[in-house]
Amino acid sequence: MKKIVTLLVIFLLLLLMAACSQGDNEEEILENTLQSSQDVYQYAADFDMRIYVETSDQSQTSNNSAQAEIILSEDPVASYQHLTQEEDGAEKTTTAYRIDNEAYVQDDGGSWRKVDVMEEETMFEPSYPEIVSILEAVEDYAVFDSSDSAYTYTYSGFDREVYDAFETPFNVELTGFDIDEDVSLDFTMHVNETEHYIENMEYNIYAENNMGNLEMNFQITYEDINDIDPIEFPEEAIEETAGNAVDLPDINQYAVDFKMHADVETEVESDRSILEGEAIVSNEDRAAYQLTTTGQNDEEMTKEFYQTGEKAYAQDENDNWVETDVEEKDALFEPSYQEVAAAVESVIPYAEKKEETEFKTYSYLSFFCA
């Protein structure tokens, strides 16, 4: 009898130790997975999105989808994307390569075009760190399971915190539905058993009211974590765009006159809007002056604006001067010289080139390139 009691005590202790060990493992797995947002800097991913909308009387339906193949490196900065979008049967494809601040883009298998990208421009959304941030936000709502070959977090139901966690990374905005009353959600997230990276995730949204119903499905799968081959621009893209470059000087100071007129005419009325003026810009000194006239039909208003560094002075509607703060990222003038130059370069593949004296003229553009 004493031996049996001893065995029972040992058995209970083993069960208790196993339970404690499982709890510690779950906490450690979560901590490592959240840390992976700092450790992962390269990956390949397959992304799939499907949206189905149907009215309550089934008179109208809509099927949209998007699939993307992504290879991405944050260090060094480089990416490859092949995106296929389908909207009610109409398909569009885009292929893009990026290295640092340069990119080559091809639409529907057509001509390649070279474009400049901003250093802070996101390479793909949702990024891996954004997916990790979702897990961090919903960890208290997810059910953890370690019985399979991968660790799994699952959820089904509706909590506003869960909906909010997915809303921004997946750019989800539901209109026509009461979010708290009409919507239900579920997701499944698999974590690699050894490295504790997120391997894949599926997220579903269901919404229904007396107007109709909506289903949204998102799936993303990661592989080749921190182990991708170097990304290089395709030779055909480089060769095809070699003659398209516009030789523009690096201009940091300039004066510009600008004018925009818009005329809209219907059977009952006509409308005319204007925006015109002049500007002096110095990127080196973070300084600018603008004299702008805006108007609609017979009403016009002219205002002045000065900026030096992070301080600016502008006239209000009563022509009083008002001091305002500006941030370093705020543009001195839009469109800037650099933006116009980038626009010229990106549309050259579609323009007819004509040599005229000392100018290069492109027939679909309204400006000359010296």
TrEMBL record:
The keyword Signal applies. Residues 1-18 form the signal peptide. The keyword Signal applies. Pfam families: DUF6612. InterPro entries: DUF6612. It comes from the Bacteria. Keywords: Signal. This is Uncharacterized protein. The lineage of its organism: Bacteria, Bacillati, Bacillota, Bacilli, Bacillales.
